[in-house]
Structures are given as C-alpha cells and as structure tokens.
C-alpha cells in the first residue's frame, strides 16, 4: 500500500506483495481474462500473456476496470477487436467512461478497440463453459464466473440461494477474503470460511486480501483444503 510501513507492506515474503485481483483462464488456445484493474500491464508482462480471447467483467469499480487502456497492446498484437462481457450496469458504465474504446477500430490500433456483450446466460469459448454467477457486493449486484469446474467470486458479501445452485460440484473456488475485521461489502476471514464450507469445493483459494493479512499467518490458521492466493499463482487442472 502506498506510504504504508506496516509489517505486511515491508515484508520480505513475496506472497505479501499484492496487485489488484484478477485471473486468467487458459485452455488449449483460449485465454479469458477477468477484469482489467490498474495493474493490468504489469500482470500481463509478468505472466507472459500473448493474446486474449475475451475479457469478462465482474463489476465497474475502478480497481477492476481502470487498466482497460492496456488492452490496446492485444489489439495491436492480434489485429482484432477484443470482445468484452459484463452485466447490463457494468457494460453501460464501461461504454460511458471509456466510450473511445467502443468506437469503430482505428486501422493503426491507436486506441483500445473493444466490443461489448451483455452476459445473461452461459457462454462457451472452445472447451470452456462460462457461467455468470450473480452475487452481492454489499447492496450492489455484480457477477462472479464459473469456468467448467472452477469458480471465481471476488468482491462479494452475500451469495443468493439461486447462485449457490450454480456452484455445486466445484473442484476449485477462488473466493473473496478482504481482511480479519468486518467489512460492509466484502467477506472477512470468518465469512470466507463459512462460504467455503457451504459451497464445499475440493479446494478453496482466498483472494482480494488487503495489507491487514499476512500470508503465512493466515495460511497457518486455515482448514485443510483452504489456502490464501498469491500473485502469480498458477493452477493446473
């Protein structure tokens, strides 16, 4: 965190060095990115990402969308318009805040060139079936996503019963876990443990942690099958 000198921010443990929450799902030539936070360029360079099939948005908060301009690099490399998927409100916010990204493409790819698609039902990309999972970020309806047997639920406080039915039989659940103390719009540690038990995935990975959480300390406290995420983590499924 900027200008912070707490033990986590000053830690030598690289697992305590965190960029904004995001994931990339890869499967036989399919590359699906979830969210474009302000750290997107650094994340893509670190992961060596060469192309994108589509971008899926969870919601319109700045820490999940404000790196959108760096998608231009993929337009330039692939010479294609990149499709984006979001719920109605997030799509409208993106089209308003970043209107220039959704205009007809520039022949020289001098700006990001994106197409927006409202996602209301499952979509298939190659061998990956993507199911939108409605959740509540405080009072704000947003989306998580299920990719075959993996689900990604960040920035949430409540999971409606209908969405729980969409999360049965998971191998991996990536779940919001902001800090130890209560927060009105995010899960804290005990709430994350509760939802991990209730969903019952084979493995649960906790993400979106602040500098209030030391990786090693939290890892030692969690039950079997639940671990904290760390930047650059790769899961082979």
Automatic annotation (TrEMBL):
InterPro entries: Metallo-B-lactamas, RibonucZ/Hydroxyglut_hydro. Keywords: Hydrolase. One of its GO terms (molecular function) is hydrolase activity. The keyword Hydrolase applies. Gene3D superfamilies: Ribonuclease Z/Hydroxyacylglutathione hydrolase-like (3.60.15.10). SUPFAM superfamilies: Metallo-hydrolase/oxidoreductase. It holds the Pfam family Lactamase_B_2. PANTHER family: HYDROLASE C777.06C-RELATED, HYDROLASE C777.06C-RELATED-RELATED. This is Putative hydrolase protein.
């Amino acid at each position: 965190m900027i200008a912070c000198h707490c033990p986590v921010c000053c830690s030598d443990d690289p697992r305590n060095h965190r960029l904004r929450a995001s994931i990339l799902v890869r499967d036989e030539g399919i590359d699906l990115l979830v969210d474009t936070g302000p750290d997107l360029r650094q994340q893509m360079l670190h992961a060596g990402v060469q192309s994108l099939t589509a971008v899926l948005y969870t919601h319109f908060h700045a820490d999940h969308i404000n790196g959108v301009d760096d998608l231009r690099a993929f337009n330039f490399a692939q010479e294609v318009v990149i499709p984006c998927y979001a719920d109605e409100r997030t799509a409208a916010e993106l089209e308003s805040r970043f209107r220039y990204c959704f205009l007809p493409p520039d022949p020289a790819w001098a700006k990001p060139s994106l197409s927006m698609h409202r996602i209301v039902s499952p979509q298939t990309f190659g061998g990956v079936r993507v199911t939108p999972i409605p959740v509540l970020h405080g009072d704000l309806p947003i989306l998580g996503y299920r990719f075959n047997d993996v689900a990604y639920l960040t920035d949430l406080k409540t999971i409606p019963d209908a969405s729980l039915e969409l999360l049965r039989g998971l191998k991996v659940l990536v779940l919001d876990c902001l800090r130890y103390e209560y927060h009105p719009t995010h899960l804290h540690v005990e709430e994350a443990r509760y939802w991990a038990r209730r969903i019952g995935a084979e493995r649960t990975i906790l993400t979106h942690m602040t500098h209030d959480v030391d990786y090693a300390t939290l890892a030692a406290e969690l039950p079997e099958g639940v671990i904290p995420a760390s930047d650059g983590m790769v899961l082979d499924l």
